[in-house]
């Protein structure tokens, strides 16, 4: 699936003035990094704007946007003094670093950052605006009926269905839709169907659309009744005398002089609306709320031993910390307050040593939120010293904990993501399935990262990619669980960063579609983004 493309517009305010007799002549240079690489590569440059400390650059940067990747960006500004393309020949005006997710995740997808990098000087600010490029996201809903179609069956009437084809540049046709079969009638009314406009005409509203009408036969040798052609522009006129088509069988027409047609097809209704994307909701202000739940059961091994999955080495992060960082670093760009509730399960907790399956890692039951991913890591390490690893491994309490929060905001303004990191031997499968089936109705997704070498069969079942999860005969209305085994990404050594990027990619890839499936099921449309223009401060 091609990534969404995003167009970045760059403006600056109150740039440094490097020219003695006039104002600076700024240019902005964008650098990007390949996933897993720390090397900056030049991506492109804006035009030079002469004599301005408040430039609004016309040249836009178009980038592929991937929610599941951390896409680092660096913007360098220079005052251009000559025609040389060599940047070292020009005066440096400052720079800013951010991620593409940070821009997209800001209110209205508009991010302001101070420019830095010139010692002892205020370098002004950079304003970055991201807009998703529309690649014809419209979806048309059409309904057709037919009248007096030819009778093709010896016993009874015809069983008509229609096949739609879009024409290609080279004159060939590609199938793009098939209606259902309406049994035993020469005057069928087919059900309304939705189809992306792109699929019907590839964005060219005048391109021919061919429609063939058949009589269905059980053995697959369907009888051709006739055909007609139209175009998206014609169909878009909606129900009118323009959209009544004669169904013609060319062979019959050639043979019979008096042949008129084999019936007519009428467009009953036509509507078109834009298919909303993940970014439409993010730009409209939907926040992702990120909660972490960590497995503190005894099967992880004694934390003071290097063989334990919870071992805190002074030299490297353990699997729990690595998985938390990999996912958290990306998701935090979409959470404006950067406060993340963090829970543990399966341990005996102070003061009385009772077993808890949803205890706050920071020790504060009234507010388990930690400040940033660093705060979660710190609370996790403190908890390891406070609690006693025990059991059993129960997921349902933490799933229900997040579901309770999600149930209070059903309007699409917030979407909840629960990350469970576990060594995988689950004890409350039936309760967890029930919790997931109930959670599938709510604005939430669950990510499970399995650490260690255990068999993760139960986790694969919860993932529901092959068979949708069910409980007590009720099937989950959406697939909301994504499971990934951490060991698939354990390369260690210098490539460890790359494998963590791979883990994050795998874990987060389904979130945008899961969020969309919730919004669509609830009929929630993204709020329009208020138009924002960068304010030019008066000197």
UniProtKB/TrEMBL annotation:
One of its GO terms (biological process) is cellular response to calcium ion. One of its GO terms (cellular component) is plasma membrane. SUPFAM superfamilies: C2 domain (Calcium/lipid-binding domain, CaLB), vWA-like. Residues 1-115, 122-245 form the C2 domain. InterPro entries: C2_dom, C2_domain_sf, C2B_Copine, Copine, Copine_C, VWF_A, vWFA_dom_sf. It comes from the Eukaryota. GO terms for molecular function: calcium-dependent phospholipid binding; metal ion binding. Keywords: Calcium, Metal-binding, Repeat. The keyword Calcium applies. PANTHER family: COPINE, COPINE-5. Belongs to the copine family. This is CPNE5 protein. It comes from Hippolais icterina. The gene is Cpne5.
């Amino acid at each position: 699936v091609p990534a969404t493309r995003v167009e970045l517009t760059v403006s600056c305010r109150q740039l440094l003035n490097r020219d003695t007799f006039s104002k600076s002549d700024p240019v902005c240079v964008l650098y990007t990094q390949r996933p897993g690489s720390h090397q900056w590569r030049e991506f492109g440059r804006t035009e030079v704007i002469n004599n301005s400390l408040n430039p609004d650059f016309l040249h836009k940067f178009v980038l592929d946007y991937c929610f599941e990747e951390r896409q680092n960006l660096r913007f360098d500004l220079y005052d251009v003094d000559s025609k040389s393309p060599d940047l070292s020949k020009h005066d440096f005006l400052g720079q800013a670093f951010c991620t593409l997710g940070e821009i997209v995740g800001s209110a209205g997808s508009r991010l302001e950052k101070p420019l830095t990098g010139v010692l002892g000087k205020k370098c002004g600010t950079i304003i970055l605006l991201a807009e998703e490029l529309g690649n014809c996201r419209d979806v048309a809903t059409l309904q057709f009926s037919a009248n007096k179609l030819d009778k093709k069956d010896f016993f009874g009437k015809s069983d008509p269905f229609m096949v739609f084809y879009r024409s290609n540049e080279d004159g060939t046709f590609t199938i793009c839709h098939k209606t259902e079969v309406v049994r035993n009638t020469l005057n069928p009314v087919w059900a309304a169907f939705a189809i992306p406009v792109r699929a019907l005409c590839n964005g060219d509203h005048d391109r021919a659309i061919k429609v063939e009408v058949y009589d269905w036969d059980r053995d697959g040798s369907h009888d051709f009744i006739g055909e007609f052609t139209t175009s998206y522009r014609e169909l878009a006129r909606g129900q009118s005398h323009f959209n009544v088509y004669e169904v013609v069988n060319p062979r019959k027409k050639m043979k019979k002089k008096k042949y008129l047609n084999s019936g007519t097809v009428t467009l009953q209704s036509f509507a078109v609306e834009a298919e909303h994307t993940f970014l439409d909701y993010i730009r409209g202000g939907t926040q992702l709320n990120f909660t972490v739940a960590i497995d503190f059961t005894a099967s992880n091994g004694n934390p003071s031993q290097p063989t334990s999955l919870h071992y805190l080495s002074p030299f490297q992060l353990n699997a729990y910390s690595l998985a938390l960082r990999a996912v958290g670093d990306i998701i935090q760009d979409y959470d404006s307050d950067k406060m993340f509730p963090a829970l543990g399960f399966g341990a005996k907790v102070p003061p009385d040593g009772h077993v808890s399956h949803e205890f706050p890692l920071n020790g504060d039951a009234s507010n388990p939120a930690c400040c940033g991913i660093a705060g979660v890591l710190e609370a996790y390490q403190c908890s390891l010293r406070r609690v006693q690893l025990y059991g059993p491994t129960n997921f349902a309490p933490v799933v229900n904990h997040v579901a309770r929060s999600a149930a209070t905001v059903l309007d699409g303004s917030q979407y909840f993501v629960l990350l469970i990191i576990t060594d995988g031997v689950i004890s409350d499968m039936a309760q967890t399935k029930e919790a997931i089936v109930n959670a599938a109705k709510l604005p939430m997704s669950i990510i499970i990262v399995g650490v260690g070498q255990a068999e993760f069969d139960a986790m694969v079942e919860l993932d529901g990619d092959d068979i949708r999860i069910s409980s007590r005969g009720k099937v989950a209305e959406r697939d909301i669980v994504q499971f990934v085994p951490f060991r698939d990404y354990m390369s260690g050594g210098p490539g460890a960063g790359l494998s963590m990027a791979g883990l994050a990619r795998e874990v987060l890839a389904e979130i945008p579609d899961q969020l969309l499936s919730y919004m669509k099921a609830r009929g929630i449309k993204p709020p329009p983004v208020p138009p924002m223009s960068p304010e030019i401060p008066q000197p």
